[in-house]
Every structure is written in C-alpha cells, then in structure tokens.
Request: fold
Amino acid sequence: MLTKTLILLGLLALAQGYSFTSREVKCHVCKAVVTELEEAVAKEDSHKMADVSGFRLDAQGNSVSKKVRLVKSEMFLTELMEKICEKMDDYLKATYKSNGKFTLLKMIVNGQMNPDSSLVDFVQDGDLNKSLGHFCNEVLEDNDEIFVKAFQADELGEDLDIKICSEQAKYCDESPIQEEYDFDGKEEL
Reply:
C-alpha cells in the first residue's frame, strides 16, 4: 500500500512540471548525506576501536600498532560514504505548499510515512528520482576529504550540514545561526 501511495504521489507531481538548478538539488542532497552519515555513525559503538597502523615497522623491525575509534577511521567513513547514496532512493523532490521552496523529503521516518508529506507537493522529474543518487555520488566524489575530515573531528558539533554544504562545498547559501551577543550586562542601544 505504501509503495502504491509513493508511486501515486510521484505521478501527480509529474504533471506539475517543476524545475530546479543542479546547485539547489546538490545543496539538499549534501544536507541529506550529512544527516544519513550522522545517523549511521550514531548507530555504531563509539568505543569500538580499529587498527589503522597498516603494516608499519619500527626501527627494530617490530610492527607498530595504532588504534583509533572505528567511527573516526578513514576506512570506516569511506566505506560508509560508498553505501550512503543508496539511501537517496528513500527521498523525493518536493516543494513546500506554504512558500514553494524546494526540499528533499525522506519518505519513511521511524517506520512510518513522513508526517511532513502533507506539507509538500511532490515533484517528479521523469527519472523516478534516480538523479538524486547521481547527485549524491557527485557530491561525495567532489568533497570526500571534506566529509572525512568533518566526521573525524573530535566533536561533530551542531550545524555540520552548514559547515560542510555551505562553508566548504559551497552548494548552499545558509550560514549558522548567530548566537545572541552578550553585551556584558550593558543595555542594548
């Protein structure tokens, strides 16, 4: 039943004829990739270690061992990025009914139809959203080092999508929300 609903929504959107710039789609794909990577990393045991020493030897010929947290290892993150674009099949292009802005909507959230689906009009571009996977691959190929370094940081922090997709990859125009300035007890002008 859910599959039929998704197909129907996609067919309805076909008739609406929306178009978006590739930069705009890449922005939303990039944000979705960050979200999917954050969720995948969060599912892993953060205490699990990985040996990243390779086959290095010290001056005496003994093997040198270096361990890092698995979720911070380049090997783990690279393997995760190689699989993450398959998740783009779970997304549909859409525009918000309230303002017409483009978005990507993950159709299934926590095993249920996304509650935000009633807030959008779905957009279909004739390729059954297969271009999202293509854009995902392109985003990751062009920015793999940026993603790896960001996810290897000691703390992922907030606004990781803005740091990667806006500030470094330059797909989006958003900037982090500024914290209110502390006037040290002085009255504002």
